[in-house]
Amino acid sequence: GDSVTQMEGPVTLSEEAFLTINCTYTATGYPSLFWYVQYPGEGLQLLLKATKADDKGSNKGFEATYRKETTSFHLEKGSVQVSDSAVYFCALSRSRLKLSFGAGTTVTVRA
Amino acid sequence: SQTIHQWPATLVQPVGSPLSLECTVEGTSNPNLYWYRQAAGRGLQLLFYSVGIGQISSEVPQNLSASRPQDRQFILSSKKLLLSDSGFYLCAWSVPGNTGELFFGEGSRLTVL
Asked: pLDDT: is B41 or B20 the higher one?
């Protein structure tokens, strides 16, 4: 079945540091890939997405590129802020009906 | 614009008591609706989804049930809660036929004692 594996946290960074969260997937066909973010005490919200190979999703300074050859969708941000502290979830959708989520990576940015 | 509301936001219940969590969506018609659970230190687990009134699909066997009595209303229930039912429950909706993007509510934290 479909599955998503993302790097385990927690990740602790200083402000202005570079952030990478690895995500790899297992799925047949050509799934759509997503990164969701969950700020403390809130539900999830979509951060970015990519629907086909080599697409790059970007939002709020975050980027991720859909790499079919490595089945990966790593999340990056060049300079994090304290406000980026959150839990980040990688997800895939193959059926347009259901999403499969990774376990989530907790990121804490210190001033 | 579309909005999603779920309540209550926080709930503390004794083992063996019933549960009802409610979710409503505004500003859209015939959405796909979902209940996810996020247990402490774990990822998101899809519990139920619905593509229409009265149509419920269960993803995992468990102590919970779901119902969709109206187009934009989704209810998560239990007759007798277990300790293992504790967690953060998230309702979500999506546009049918979309690329799978979900819009989440703010969540309901359930503690079973």
From this structure: B20
The pLDDT tens digits for A20-61 are 999 999 998 889 999 999 998 888 999 999 999 999 999 999
Phi, psi of A82 (to 5 degrees): -55, -35
Q: Could you tell me how far CA B26 lies from the centroid of its own chain?
A: 16
Q: Which of A5, A25, A4 is nearest to A67 (CA)?
A: A25
| Cβ <8 Å between A98 and B99 | no
Q: Do A32 and B42 touch (CB under 8 A)?
A: no
Q: How confident is the model at residue B41 (pLDDT cuts 50, 70, 90)?
A: low
Which among A77, A109, A70, A75 has a CA at the least distance from the CA of A91? A75
Nearest CB neighbour to A43, from listed B51, B98, B106: B106
Mean pLDDT score of chain B? 92
Q: Is B106 on the interface with A (CB under 8 A)?
A: yes
Two structure tokens written together for B107: 């969540």
From CA B66, how far away is CA B48, in angstroms rounded? 7
Quickly list DSSP for A15-66: TT--EEE-EEEE-SS--EEEEEEE-TTS-EEEEEEE-STT-EEEETTEEEE-
Residue A49 · residue A57 · CB < 8 Å: yes
